[in-house]
Design a protein that fits this description.
The complex is a heterotrimer of chains A (307), B (665) and C (167). Chain A has 307 residues and is of the alpha/beta class. In chain A, 33% of the residues lie in helices and 8% in strands. Chain A folds into 2 domains: 135 residues, no CATH class; 111 residues, no CATH class. With 167 residues, chain C is an alpha/beta fold. The chains are: A alpha/beta (307), B alpha/beta (665), C alpha/beta (167).
Chain lengths: 307, 665, 167
């Protein structure tokens, strides 16, 4: 039997977002609000940036509000925050990304007006957006979520429903399975996965942390990573990507969601998160850290692997 | 298109014995971009360098690879030669085919293949080398000397006499070091204090010397020409400016039975004390651990009797920041503790010789204090246990030294000579006594040294027994010393009244910690490493830091003084320039691509990365990027490895250069 | 799926060492001046500091056909640049876990501290890694990958299968 997850409060949440967005835009507190509007398919949503109180009534929040909107404040959209204070709708996982970006000097807290969502979870990307949310079709990242109630926001709609308790992590199970294999078996697994890559870089485009102006993997002097979609270059790209996100990834799993070839990219990110937790007791959270786990050190750090 | 010249050195036969240099030259000549390749017997020699310069001009070379010894040996030599021929010195690289190849591989085929590979790698790297402009930095013409023993005193006086300011930092309450503890000195037997104390006074009175005693180095920042050193001046509890040095406090202090470190703990001192009467400065220190006032809050006699009111129980440690351009490290030595194994030391103890357990087994420095006219016994050689004059005395050499199984394989260098001196001092003071010396062999290289040693045997009647002691134990009030005389092949047993152990010379406790603060290298015994064992014995590999005395390795006084003066000369050479040229191996930020995440700034240990605002013509802030201060950057490149988009690059070690090497494999 | 390893008796492994100039490079120099002997398979790349060593270089080395990679620098506390080796230690602690997870046998990747005084340790570390890798045979993973032109894998998701059927 598959448990249905109670998301009846999403209606109230959506209404609260509309009211709050209209208020902050109306009062001139912010110049724009990054949020979700209804998509064309039933129940679906799409990201939207609104700049007037009148547009606020288009906003919504459903179990399909999976996108991490933080990406709209970096990269090519970097100018948006500069135009004035920006309102943004954030789930807990999205907030962790914003906090990471603040730690890396990409955003300042005072530039943002955070509308936090008490989140019971969103749908997996393979599911029709109108389906009721269940433990079975919940996005994998939501199963182990410890950030259902974002902290430190400017506004969080009040609800009196208890949020669901976390489920067993499918990532953890898969990581454990892979860890149990021999190196050769793991290599075979990932070779299979990486070979599918078509180098569309959707994973890079959607990631809030891939904010470099020029990606290392696009450089040609020297060429660190082959840019054509061939197995050797693909493998290198995914290894470099996972390493560059280690200690920064906030776990929104957008890379995995947008991958057209269904490469389990978040598995790499979760594995690195697990290792950084074990090695350096680091976890992405709601507090801005001055330094990340790989830009700092402790004298007593583990060195058992060094001769 | 590059026109690279490759020059392969035979190094006499050091390389050519195992590497087929002609084959390497042929291999190099065939590499794309190589315009000229040749081999020569001694590339570093004058004709070798001439050949190099000539080839650069005649062959219109754009880059140079010299395949020879380690770049640590001759990189500078060849870069200078290349510069003299009109090329930027940083277009020259060395391929290490000696230390990393011909000397470590016997198989000629394998060594030759490896040499070809190394040359190939360096050719590819060199193609990516860029012209690097020389960076100059200003020089702060003040010097820091760490350690106030004879080495530090000599270096400080020499530098100060040349007209440059010196900051001298000493850990103990007085300068003087170990030399101040000695009774007489070999090979002339002049009184140590008579030659030492005038120099100490010179330091105190020198207008160019700032003296911090009872102080330690807290932090060292900066680089050659521009160091910022934080000195922790420990609370003395006595104000140095008001104290007149009358010493009334010391006579009145009720705590009188504290073993004095200066007297090797056989003499006693008070809780407020100067370590010895000729101390410089002659300002007492309160030993807070043993002072009744600090232990119980009562007492305070010293404060009451102090006329000028110099005693200050509230005094705190102070931190002083000094800007200096050069540092002389002269932290000296300590004697190997034979009673207990020092914490964390890889060296095994010598408990079997009874030191620390049998009171009349002492070390050489304790004997010095007994023999010293200003020592706790007024120069009378007596047993610490009962104050009796020892009639039979045994000296044992090489305790700790030259004993690989105990962890020290080096020779402590001074013990043969000071033991010979001890037998003489003993004979002068105890006319009817007999001295025996157990020794492995006597090492007496030095002017008038062997004559001195012979005199101890021939005139002063010391009996030298070649062999080591196997057992030593207390029997009644005697110490039985058993050993073998390997020269005659008999067992020897001596009932001695006193035993003196010539314990090994070791670096000061905490020498490694200081080295870490200074960023200088040290060997496995914690002796500081010189830049080159033969040709740069005074410099550290870290520019601007020089070594003097026993902190670098065991040394006697004349050697220490020579090295101290040499270090001072090096400092003066440095100060003779207004600006210094430094290696342009520094990081640069490609501002166009920098996204301002400041990961580089977070990992920079030098604070060399700054935030730079980029504004448009109207003054509107466009973005904030990283910027490296080349004067502060030390060139480690940690920033580049951390930068996600590689927008900070370390000149001389760019990604292009490194990837070219990897791809050449 | 996994390539058969061909271990021939005359296999000479390619070992690449990334070392810092102040400690390990100097330690290797000392091994030379002391005329110690070790296998000639290692090729040394000099860096100012282990802090400069980018994990991508290790990846690149394997891609270029290295059978073993050694990364070596100053002991903790001895860094000529104060803390470069501490940063490197963290970076490599994480990176090796990633490589392990994608199936690189960590037997082929060795980290060590070798000081300027440890010529003997340099010989020991290089010899041990070379012999270990020699026994393991050539590292085929990246070499084979480099030869493959395109994806030849299975279609593991229903959508892919669906899409393929429609073509």
């Amino acid at each position: 039997m598959i448990n249905t997850i109670d998301i009846s409060h999403y209606g109230t949440v959506a209404e609260s977002i509309r009211i709050e967005a209209a208020r902050i835009l109306g009062e001139g507190l912010v110049t724009a609000v990054v949020a979700y509007t209804a998509g064309r398919r039933a129940g679906s949503v799409q990201p939207a940036i609104i700049t007037s109180a009148a547009e606020a009534e288009r906003l919504t929040f459903t179990a399909a509000s999976v996108n991490n909107l933080a990406v709209y404040l970096t990269k090519a959209k970097k100018d948006i925050p500069r135009s004035g204070r920006i309102g943004i709708v954030v789930k807990g996982c999205d907030l962790k990304a914003l906090v990471g970006l603040m730690g890396e000097s990409q955003l300042q807290r005072e530039q943002l007006y955070l509308i936090g969502i008490p989140c019971a979870g969103v749908l997996a990307s393979t599911v029709r957006p109108a389906e009721p949310l269940t433990a079975g079709n919940l996005a994998p990242k939501c199963r182990e979520c410890d950030a259902q109630l974002p902290e430190g926001c400017d506004y969080v709609p009040e609800i009196d429903l208890p949020l669901p308790t976390p489920l067993e992590s499918t990532y953890a199970a898969e990581i454990a399975r892979l860890e149990g294999l021999t190196p050769a078996e793991r290599w075979a697994y990932w070779k299979e996965q990486f070979a599918k890559c078509i180098k569309c870089y959707a994973c890079r485009q959607v990631c809030p942390f891939c904010f470099c102006e020029q990606c290392l993997c696009d450089r040609n002097k020297p060429q660190m990573v082959d840019t054509t979609p061939r197995p050797a270059g693909n493998t290198a790209w995914h290894i470099v990507r996972a390493m560059h996100l280690a200690g920064r990834c906030a776990g929104c799993a957008e890379c995995e969601r947008v991958c057209p070839m269904d490469i389990p990219l978040n598995l790499l990110n979760r594995k690195m998160a697990k290792e950084l937790k074990e090695l350096f007791d680091y976890e992405a959270g709601f507090a801005v850290n001055e330094k990340g786990p790989l830009t700092m050190f402790m004298e007593k750090d583990d060195q058992s692997f060094i001769k | 298109m590059s026109r690279i010249g490759v020059f392969i050195c035979h190094c006499g036969e050091n390389i050519s014995r195992t590497v087929d240099v002609e084959r390497v030259a042929a291999h190099a000549a065939a590499l794309p971009g190589v315009a000229y390749a040749t081999e020569y017997k001694y590339m570093c020699s004058d004709p070798g360098q001439t050949l190099l310069k000539k080839a650069i001009r005649e062959q219109r070379l754009t880059h140079v690879v010299v395949a020879a010894c380690s770049p640590r040996m001759h990189e500078r030599t060849f870069r200078k030669a290349v510069e003299a021929a009109g090329l930027n010195p940083y277009l020259c690289e060395m391929a290490n085919i000696r230390e990393h190849c011909s000397w470590v591989h016997e198989d000629r085929e394998q060594a030759t293949v490896k040499a070809c590979d190394i040359v190939g790698m360096m050719v590819e790297r060199t193609k990516k080398n860029r012209v690097l402009p020389t960076i100059t930095v200003p020089v702060t013409k003040r010097s820091l000397v760490i350690g106030g023993g004879i080495a530090g005193i000599q270096a400080a006086l020499d530098i100060a006499d040349s007209g440059h300011e010196v900051v001298l930092v000493e850990r103990e309450p007085s300068i003087g070091g170990h030399m101040a503890q000695l009774s007489e000195t070999f090979p002339t037997l002049d009184c140590s204090q008579c030659i030492m104390t005038p120099k100490m006074v010179d330091v105190a009175n020198h207008p160019k010397i700032t003296l911090y005693t009872y102080s330690e180095i807290e932090l060292v920042e900066g680089y050659i020409g521009n160091f910022q050193v934080t000195v922790r001046k420990r609370a003395r509890s006595v104000d140095e400016r008001t104290c007149t040095g009358c010493g009334v406090c010391m006579t009145k202090c009720p705590q009188k039975k504290i073993p004095n470190k200066f007297d090797q703990y056989i003499g006693m001192r008070t809780a407020i004390y100067v370590p010895f009467p000729q101390a410089v400065p002659n300002t007492p220190v309160i030993d807070r651990e043993n002072c009744t006032r600090f232990k119980t809050g009562k007492c305070g006699v010293c404060q009451k009797v102090c006329g000028p009111g110099a005693v200050d129980f509230e005094q705190q440690d102070t931190l002083i920041v000094e800007a200096v351009g050069a540092i002389v490290v002269a932290t000296g030595f300590d004697l190997y503790s034979i009673s207990e194994k020092p914490k964390g030391s890889p060296i095994k103890g010598y408990g079997e010789f009874g030191h620390g357990k049998i009171p009349d087994v002492i070390d050489g420095m304790t004997f010095e204090r007994l023999a010293s006219a200003s020592g706790p016994t007024g120069g009378k050689i007596v047993r610490p246990s009962d104050g009796r004059e020892p009639k039979q005395i045994v000296f044992i050499q090489c305790i700790g030294s030259r004993a690989r199984e105990k962890g020290i394989s080096y020779c402590s260098k001074v013990c043969c000579m000071y033991t010979a001196k001890h037998t003489m001092l003993y004979h002068h003071k105890v006319h009817d006594g007999q001295a025996y010396v157990f020794f492995m062999d006597a090492r007496t290289p030095g002017k008038s040294y062997d004559e001195f040693w012979r005199r101890s045997i021939e005139e002063e009647e010391a009996v030298y027994i070649r062999g080591m002691v196997s057992r030593l134990y207390q029997k009644g009030d005697k110490i039985v010393v058993m050993g073998s005389d390997i020269a005659v092949g008999v067992q020897v047993e001596i009932e001695a009244d006193m035993v003196v152990l010539a314990t090994a010379v070791q670096p000061q406790q905490g020498a490694d910690l200081l080295a870490q603060k200074l960023g200088i290298s040290y060997d496995k015994y914690n002796f500081y490493s010189e830049a080159h064992a033969k040709l740069r014995p005074v410099e550290c590999a870290t520019a601007g830091i020089f070594l003097a005395g026993a902190c670098q390795g065991p040394k006697d006084i004349p050697e220490t003084v020579s090295q101290a003066s040499a270090a001072a000369a090096k400092v003066m050479t440095l100060f003779s320039k207004e600006r210094l040229e430094r290696e342009p191996i520094v990081a640069r930020v490609r501002e166009v691509g920098c996204v301002g995440c400041f990961a580089c700034k977070k990992v920079c240990a030098y604070g060399a990365v700054e935030e730079k605002e980029i504004r448009d013509r109207q003054g509107n802030l466009l973005r904030v990027v990283a910027s490296v201060n080349p004067g502060v950057c030390a060139g480690c490149g940690t920033c580049q490895a951390t930068c996600p988009s590689k927008c900070v690059e370390l000149d001389g070690y760019t990604d292009e250069q490194i990837v070219a090497m990897i791809e050449a494999l | 799926m996994h390539p058969e390893k061909t271990i021939s008796s005359d296999f000479e492994p390619k070992v690449i060492a990334f070392v810092c100039t102040w400690c390990t490079y100097a330690g290797a120099d000392l091994a030379g001046t002391s005329r110690m002997q070790y296998p000639s398979n290692v090729r040394v790349l000099k860096f100012p500091c282990t802090g400069r060593i980018d994990p991508v270089f290790i990846l690149k080395a394997f891609q270029q056909g290295a059978d073993g990679v050694l990364v070596s620098g100053c002991h903790p506390g001895d860094c000529h640049y104060i803390a470069g080796n501490f940063h490197a230690r963290r970076r490599f602690a994480a990176f090796r876990k990633l490589l392990e997870f994608v199936g690189v046998d960590l037997q082929r990747l060795q980290f060590s501290w070798v000081s300027a005084a440890e010529g003997g340790k340099w010989v020991e570390v290089v010899t041990e890694l070379t012999e270990k890798v020699r026994a393991m045979g050539p590292m085929m993973e990246f070499k084979e990958l480099a030869l493959e032109e395109q994806w030849s894998g299975a279609m593991i998701s229903p959508e892919l299968q669906d899409a393929y059927r429609q073509i």
